Amino acid sequence: MINIQRYLSESEVLKVIEKYNVHNIVVHEKKVASNAVVLFDSIKQNYELSAVDREFLKYSALLHDIGYFIHKENHHEHTKYIILKEPSLDKLPNEIRFILAAVAGSHGKSIDESIGFYSDKLKLRLLKLIALLRIADALDHTHNLNVSLIGIKVRNEALRIKITGQGSEHILKKLKKKSNLFSKVYRIPVLVECF
Fold first, then answer.
1. Which residues form the Ppx/GppA phosphatase C-terminal domain (predicted)?
2. Measured between alpha carbons, how far is 179 from 185 in angstroms, rounded to an integer?
Protein backbone atom coordinates (compact mmCIF):
# COMPACT_ATOMS: atom_id res chain seq x y z
CA MET A 1 0.00 0.00 0.00
CA ILE A 2 1.20 3.51 -0.78
CA ASN A 3 1.97 5.94 2.04
CA ILE A 4 -1.03 8.25 2.26
CA GLN A 5 1.00 10.95 4.05
CA ARG A 6 2.98 11.56 0.86
CA TYR A 7 -0.16 13.10 -0.59
CA LEU A 8 -2.26 14.33 2.31
CA SER A 9 -1.30 15.74 5.70
CA GLU A 10 -3.20 15.09 8.89
CA SER A 11 -4.03 18.80 9.13
CA GLU A 12 -5.69 18.58 5.70
CA VAL A 13 -7.76 15.62 6.87
CA LEU A 14 -8.78 17.58 9.97
CA LYS A 15 -9.99 20.42 7.71
CA VAL A 16 -12.15 17.93 5.81
CA ILE A 17 -13.75 16.56 8.96
CA GLU A 18 -14.38 20.10 10.23
CA LYS A 19 -16.05 20.95 6.91
CA TYR A 20 -18.49 18.06 7.34
CA ASN A 21 -18.96 18.42 11.10
CA VAL A 22 -22.59 18.04 12.17
CA HIS A 23 -23.82 17.23 15.67
CA ASN A 24 -20.19 17.75 16.77
CA ILE A 25 -19.30 14.40 15.13
CA VAL A 26 -15.69 15.55 14.77
CA VAL A 27 -15.13 14.91 18.49
CA HIS A 28 -16.24 11.30 17.99
CA GLU A 29 -14.07 10.91 14.89
CA LYS A 30 -10.98 12.09 16.78
CA LYS A 31 -11.76 9.75 19.69
CA VAL A 32 -12.16 6.81 17.30
CA ALA A 33 -8.89 7.70 15.57
CA SER A 34 -7.15 7.81 18.94
CA ASN A 35 -8.63 4.43 19.93
CA ALA A 36 -7.66 2.95 16.56
CA VAL A 37 -4.03 4.05 16.90
CA VAL A 38 -3.82 2.69 20.45
CA LEU A 39 -5.27 -0.64 19.29
CA PHE A 40 -2.86 -0.72 16.34
CA ASP A 41 0.17 0.06 18.47
CA SER A 42 -0.83 -2.61 20.97
CA ILE A 43 -0.95 -5.43 18.43
CA LYS A 44 1.46 -4.41 15.65
CA GLN A 45 4.34 -6.50 16.99
CA ASN A 46 2.19 -9.65 16.79
CA TYR A 47 0.99 -9.11 13.22
CA GLU A 48 2.34 -7.89 9.91
CA LEU A 49 1.36 -4.24 10.27
CA SER A 50 3.45 -1.30 9.10
CA ALA A 51 3.72 2.42 9.79
CA VAL A 52 1.95 2.98 6.46
CA ASP A 53 -0.94 0.83 7.69
CA ARG A 54 -1.06 2.85 10.92
CA GLU A 55 -1.44 6.18 9.13
CA PHE A 56 -3.99 4.75 6.74
CA LEU A 57 -6.03 3.46 9.69
CA LYS A 58 -5.77 6.84 11.42
CA TYR A 59 -6.99 8.75 8.35
CA SER A 60 -9.81 6.24 7.79
CA ALA A 61 -10.88 6.62 11.42
CA LEU A 62 -10.84 10.40 11.22
CA LEU A 63 -13.06 10.33 8.13
CA HIS A 64 -15.31 7.38 9.01
CA ASP A 65 -18.41 9.37 10.01
CA ILE A 66 -18.33 12.37 7.67
CA GLY A 67 -21.35 10.80 5.97
CA TYR A 68 -23.49 12.07 8.86
CA PHE A 69 -23.31 15.41 7.03
CA ILE A 70 -25.67 13.98 4.42
CA HIS A 71 -27.76 11.78 6.70
CA LYS A 72 -27.33 9.49 9.70
CA GLU A 73 -29.02 6.59 7.90
CA ASN A 74 -26.62 4.96 5.47
CA HIS A 75 -23.88 7.31 6.65
CA HIS A 76 -21.33 4.61 5.78
CA GLU A 77 -22.25 4.94 2.10
CA HIS A 78 -22.36 8.72 2.37
CA THR A 79 -18.88 8.65 3.91
CA LYS A 80 -17.58 6.75 0.90
CA TYR A 81 -19.32 9.18 -1.46
CA ILE A 82 -17.85 12.26 0.24
CA ILE A 83 -14.33 10.81 0.24
CA LEU A 84 -14.62 10.06 -3.48
CA LYS A 85 -16.05 13.51 -4.34
CA GLU A 86 -14.45 15.96 -1.87
CA PRO A 87 -12.25 18.37 -3.92
CA SER A 88 -9.63 18.76 -1.18
CA LEU A 89 -8.90 15.03 -1.52
CA ASP A 90 -8.29 15.31 -5.29
CA LYS A 91 -4.53 15.21 -4.72
CA LEU A 92 -4.80 11.57 -3.64
CA PRO A 93 -4.03 9.02 -6.35
CA ASN A 94 -7.22 7.17 -7.32
CA GLU A 95 -5.98 3.88 -5.88
CA ILE A 96 -5.44 5.42 -2.43
CA ARG A 97 -8.67 7.38 -2.57
CA PHE A 98 -10.75 4.31 -3.46
CA ILE A 99 -9.13 2.26 -0.70
CA LEU A 100 -9.58 5.07 1.86
CA ALA A 101 -13.26 5.35 0.93
CA ALA A 102 -13.72 1.57 1.12
CA VAL A 103 -12.04 1.23 4.53
CA ALA A 104 -13.78 4.25 6.10
CA GLY A 105 -17.12 3.19 4.60
CA SER A 106 -16.77 -0.36 5.92
CA HIS A 107 -16.81 0.53 9.61
CA GLY A 108 -20.44 -0.56 9.95
CA LYS A 109 -22.22 -3.81 9.21
CA SER A 110 -20.99 -4.49 5.70
CA ILE A 111 -17.68 -4.55 3.91
CA ASP A 112 -17.43 -2.45 0.77
CA GLU A 113 -17.74 -4.70 -2.28
CA SER A 114 -14.74 -3.09 -4.00
CA ILE A 115 -12.39 -4.73 -1.50
CA GLY A 116 -13.16 -8.06 -3.15
CA PHE A 117 -11.41 -6.91 -6.33
CA TYR A 118 -8.01 -6.41 -4.69
CA SER A 119 -5.29 -9.04 -4.41
CA ASP A 120 -5.65 -11.48 -1.52
CA LYS A 121 -2.68 -9.90 0.23
CA LEU A 122 -4.06 -6.34 0.00
CA LYS A 123 -7.57 -7.51 0.85
CA LEU A 124 -6.27 -9.12 4.05
CA ARG A 125 -4.41 -5.91 5.02
CA LEU A 126 -7.56 -3.86 4.46
CA LEU A 127 -9.71 -6.28 6.45
CA LYS A 128 -7.22 -6.04 9.32
CA LEU A 129 -7.56 -2.24 9.28
CA ILE A 130 -11.35 -2.37 9.02
CA ALA A 131 -11.47 -4.80 11.96
CA LEU A 132 -9.47 -2.37 14.11
CA LEU A 133 -11.60 0.57 12.97
CA ARG A 134 -14.78 -1.28 13.92
CA ILE A 135 -13.53 -1.99 17.44
CA ALA A 136 -12.31 1.60 17.87
CA ASP A 137 -15.71 2.88 16.73
CA ALA A 138 -17.58 0.49 19.05
CA LEU A 139 -15.59 1.83 22.01
CA ASP A 140 -17.29 5.19 21.46
CA HIS A 141 -20.45 4.06 19.68
CA THR A 142 -22.74 6.16 21.86
CA HIS A 143 -20.62 9.24 21.01
CA ASN A 144 -20.68 10.15 24.70
CA LEU A 145 -16.90 9.90 25.11
CA ASN A 146 -17.32 8.49 28.61
CA VAL A 147 -15.43 5.25 28.02
CA SER A 148 -11.63 5.12 28.15
CA LEU A 149 -9.18 2.40 27.19
CA ILE A 150 -7.00 1.47 30.14
CA GLY A 151 -5.28 -1.56 28.69
CA ILE A 152 -4.89 -3.57 25.50
CA LYS A 153 -2.71 -6.57 24.92
CA VAL A 154 -2.56 -9.81 23.06
CA ARG A 155 -2.20 -12.50 25.69
CA ASN A 156 -3.15 -16.17 25.90
CA GLU A 157 -4.24 -16.11 22.27
CA ALA A 158 -6.84 -13.35 22.75
CA LEU A 159 -7.06 -9.59 22.35
CA ARG A 160 -7.76 -8.37 25.86
CA ILE A 161 -9.23 -4.90 26.21
CA LYS A 162 -9.79 -3.15 29.53
CA ILE A 163 -12.15 -0.18 29.61
CA THR A 164 -13.45 2.15 32.25
CA GLY A 165 -15.93 4.97 32.52
CA GLN A 166 -19.59 5.68 32.89
CA GLY A 167 -21.54 3.50 30.50
CA SER A 168 -18.77 0.96 29.87
CA GLU A 169 -21.18 -1.93 30.32
CA HIS A 170 -23.48 -0.47 27.64
CA ILE A 171 -20.91 -0.79 24.89
CA LEU A 172 -20.15 -4.46 25.54
CA LYS A 173 -22.92 -5.75 23.24
CA LYS A 174 -21.90 -3.41 20.42
CA LEU A 175 -18.24 -4.24 20.93
CA LYS A 176 -18.94 -7.96 20.78
CA LYS A 177 -20.82 -7.53 17.52
CA LYS A 178 -18.23 -5.24 15.94
CA SER A 179 -15.32 -7.46 17.00
CA ASN A 180 -16.49 -10.43 14.90
CA LEU A 181 -14.40 -9.34 11.92
CA PHE A 182 -11.34 -8.95 14.14
CA SER A 183 -11.75 -12.49 15.48
CA LYS A 184 -12.14 -13.83 11.94
CA VAL A 185 -9.21 -11.94 10.39
CA TYR A 186 -6.73 -12.09 13.28
CA ARG A 187 -7.95 -15.53 14.38
CA ILE A 188 -8.21 -14.68 18.05
CA PRO A 189 -11.18 -13.72 20.23
CA VAL A 190 -11.71 -10.27 21.71
CA LEU A 191 -12.26 -10.22 25.47
CA VAL A 192 -13.37 -7.04 27.20
CA GLU A 193 -13.30 -6.20 30.91
CA CYS A 194 -15.02 -3.20 32.47
CA PHE A 195 -13.51 -1.46 35.50
1. 12-154
2. 10
Q: Nearest CA to 136 among 182, 189, 92?
A: 182
Tell whether 152 is covered by a domain.
no
CA 70, 73, 77, 80 torsion: positive or negative?
positive
195 has pLDDT over 90:
no
- Dist CA 108 CA 111 (whole Å): 8
Domain assignment present for residue 71? The answer is yes
| CA atoms of 78 and 34, how far apart (whole Å) | 23
Number of domains into which the chain is organized: 1
Q: Which one has a higher pLDDT value, 84 or 148?
A: 84
187 within some domain:
no
Q: How confident is the model at residue 118 (pLDDT cuts 50, 70, 90)?
A: very high
CA–CA dist 75, 79 (Å, integer) = 6
